Amino acid sequence: MITLKSDREIKKMAESGAVLAGVHQGLRKLIKPGLDTWKIEEFADKYITEHGATPSEKGFDGYKFGTCISINDEVAHGIPRKGLKLKNGDLVKVDMCVNKDGFESDSCWTYAVGDVSPEAKKLMKVTKTALYKGIDQAQVGNRIGDIGAAIQEYVEDENGMGDVRELIGHGIQPSIHEDPAVPAYGEKGQGLRLRPGMTITIEPMVTLGTWKIKDRYDAKDDWTYYVTADGSLSAQYEHTIVIQRIGHYFLCFVNKELLKLFFIGFYQLFVILP
Predict the structure, then answer these.
(1) Is residue 268 part of a domain?
(2) What's the predicted TM-score (pTM) here?
(3) 17: nearest Cα among 249, 179, 263
(4) Among residues 18, 39, 95, 205, which is most buried (max CB within 10 A)?
């Protein structure tokens, strides 16, 4: 079911998103070679709860943690693993959802651990740019397919990278996963028409090789997550946005003291990190 959000609901989702943004800002300083991935989980859980919110993924469909932590060829749904330490050159994706006063936000960022290869840097840049290519299409009157087509064209046609198909964006609020499905691939002019008040996530997952993924089972933790089918590096960036009739606000964290507002067609529901 798709619900159109009121101004009050959008404001409350933005408050949730501000907490989520604070976690990501803190992770930029925390993540470094030698860090145990469990420290990421501990930091996120502590920050979220200290700011009057809860990590929404914990308990969702039986999931035990507040974060998903996926490294290198791990595309998504990796878990925080005690004893697994980040190495110089790794790419680590940290995906999480926050609930504050009953309102949800969802975001994933890819972090470079120490010094990464030129190929990894390009992958991160292409993935982040692809996200904003999709966001540019998230306008009233456009269709879901316009978002995915913009991402796919940029990732595959312009950069020759893999645009993952099996894992996609989604609607959000009142739960973390709602209709509509928001693929990071598609055809222009196809799919559901976007309406004011819709809240969605856009989350391209990009690889240096094939777009295909496969399951990987971790017997130690009894958990299955997704990896690239060919072992290539992957990256992901995700934002939560609301479709607005007259442009939307874009909250961009420029430094610790300053926020800038831009009218670019959507309202970013959490502070953007550079």
Answers:
(1) no
(2) 0.91
(3) 249
(4) 205
